[in-house]
TrEMBL record:
Alphabetical GO biological process terms: actin filament depolymerization
InterPro entries xref list: ADF-H, ADF-H/Gelsolin-like_dom_sf, ADF/Cofilin
Designated name of the protein: ADF-H domain-containing protein
All residue ranges annotated as the ADF-H domain in the record: 5-151
GO molecular-function term, one example from the UniProt record: actin binding
SMART domains (alphabetical): ADF (SM00102)
Similarity comment text for this entry: Belongs to the actin-binding proteins ADF family.
Organism: Cafeteria roenbergensis (Marine flagellate)
GO cellular component assignments: actin cytoskeleton
Highest taxon of the lineage: Eukaryota
Keywords linked to the UniProt accession: Actin-binding
Pfam families to which the protein is assigned, alphabetical: Cofilin_ADF (PF00241)
Length: 151
């Protein structure tokens, strides 16, 4: 049986990173995690797996932090990123988490399906994420696209 119909849940490591990112006083700017499947005999299981976190560099703009996060994305690895968007909108400073599902076309079909079928699960597990952006190519992940998706 293929692993595409499976849903995952956020483990304690991802939940702890999410709790830290939600605090506006934290230096955490992004959480990056993927889906790891394991096959034992005829049974395949899947779980979210933390890849890494990225701290905010206060000497840089939020756009520069966004671009630094983009540099970590690989063409052969799909993942989810929760990025702490910070920007000004209508004269107010905004702080909103943005869920990015990175699903490059170079991935196997089953891996793309796992990313697509688990995006809503990520939103349920990480309460408070309301906005998301899906991309298959890096040029779709401009800072302006992220701001537009977040507003």
């Amino acid at each position: 049986m293929a692993a595409t119909g499976m849903t995952c849940t956020a483990n304690e490591e991802i939940s702890a990173a999410w709790d830290a990112l939600k605090k506006s006083t934290t230096k955490l700017a992004a959480i990056r995690f993927g889906i790891e499947t394991t096959k034992v005999g005829m049974k395949t299981t899947a779980e979210f797996k933390l890849i890494d976190t990225m701290e905010r560099d206060d000497s840089k703009t939020n756009e520069e932090n966004w671009n630094a996060m983009l540099e970590t994305l690989k063409e052969d690895e799909g993942c989810f990123i929760v990025f702490d968007m910070r920007f000004e909108h209508s004269g107010r400073q905004m702080y909103r988490p943005l869920l990015v599902s990175w699903c490059p076309d170079s991935l196997k079909v089953t891996d793309r399906m796992m990313i697509g079928s688990n995006k809503d699960q990520v939103k349920r597990d990480l309460t408070g994420i309301q906005k998301s952006l899906h991309a298959a190519e890096k040029d779709e992940l401009t800072y302006e696209a992220a701001k537009t998706a977040t507003v």
